Amino acid sequence: MKDKSMLMIPGPTPVPESVLRALGTHPIGHRSGEFSQIFARVTQGLKWLHQTKNDVLILASSGTGAMEAGMINFLSPGDRVLVGSNGKFGERWAEVALAYGLDVQEVKSPWGTALNPDDFKAALEADTAKTIKAVVITHSETSTGVLNDLEAINAQVKAHGALIIVDAVTSLGAVSVPVDAWGLDVVGSGSQKGYMMPPGLGFVSVSAQAWEAYKTAKLPKFYLDLGKYRKDAGKNTTPFTPPVNLFFALDAALEMMQAEGLDNIFARHARLTQATRAAIKALNLALYAPDDAASPAITAVAPAGIDAEKIRSIMKKRFDIALAGGQDHLKGQVFRIGHLGFVCDRDILAAIAGLEASLRE
Ligand code: PLP
């Protein structure tokens, strides 16, 4: 018998039955009253998840689309931006900024280590003329399993006055991202991660300070013009035809998340992370990220002397458990275990048992 695959990758993540059922219904018109009711409900749910009163806008995009929108709506050609880079996704935001003609300064740390808030302090304090307009940070760096210290870096950004633009793609819904308490200006995320949904929706929260910057921002935009989304959100709809079934799914997923409660969601992810890391240590394998900067979404394992791709392939063939591989230069050197979204203790137990057996092959 072919059982369902176990998806232990950091997105797309497993999807609960209630969310699957919500997907499998007839579409409705996005200008209907019925859609508006769903739109209003999910917008409230998103604000709850982001712990904010800011606008949280919904795009038909992946996480990259949400981040691209989060960058281009608030900046003008030639603007200086600082981009934190300690993995694949930090590098991507520097690429996006360059593609739009921004003046990019990367603040780097080696892959597998956390960004150093003091490096941001130094770069921002040196900018006495206040030419740096925004700082872009990846909160949970999925390529390495490192959680960057967003709170400490953000404190430096606030002291300077630049906008902070956060990639919370694998942190939102796994660890607290208190948008209002920390004053996070722009936060991007995607549905196939902590939201327990299939891919297809991108989310961007936008602060009042960011909307001020929007007024004078001159980078080109059309489909990703967040002003359009904000205007139509006021009428509980979207500027372009939305993937309405994904809105049904979002409604179901947010209902489940609200029933679990934010603290319980974060505690579950912390527990799954600790359990995974303890098991990896017990198997005498090396963890790629340090304990004090462990991502709540993903654990990267560096099985020195063993081909990480071979382990992944055995796990898939023997147990139908999908793990993620290493990205870029880490291919073959690390495998990554996702523990994000609709994942429970039993999933981790199964993945670890499968891993233990695979190592013996
Ligand atoms: N940022 C992070 C931290 C991610 O993990 C990912 C995807 O894995 C992305 C951005 C890109 O998201 P997407 O593939 O949905 O565009």
From TrEMBL:
Keywords, sorted A to Z: Aminotransferase, Pyridoxal phosphate, Transferase
Residues involved in substrate binding: R336
Keyword presence, Transferase: yes
Reported cofactor(s): pyridoxal 5'-phosphate
Top-rank lineage group of the source organism: Bacteria
Residue intervals of the Aminotransferase class V domain: 27-327
GO biological process, one term: glycine biosynthetic process, by transamination of glyoxylate
Signal peptide segment: none
PTM-bearing positions, type N6-(pyridoxal phosphate)lysine: K193
InterPro entries (UniProt xref): Aminotrans_V_dom, Aminotrans_V_PyrdxlP_BS, PyrdxlP-dep_Trfase, PyrdxlP-dep_Trfase_major, PyrdxlP-dep_Trfase_small, SP_NH2Trfase/AEP_transaminase
A family per Pfam: Aminotran_5
An MF annotation (GO) of this entry: alanine-glyoxylate transaminase activity
Keyword Ligase (UniProt): no
Family: Belongs to the class-V pyridoxal-phosphate-dependent aminotransferase family.
Designated name of the protein: Alanine--glyoxylate aminotransferase family protein
Source species: Pseudocalidococcus azoricus BACA0444
Phylogenetic placement of the source organism: Bacteria, Bacillati, Cyanobacteriota, Cyanophyceae, Acaryochloridales
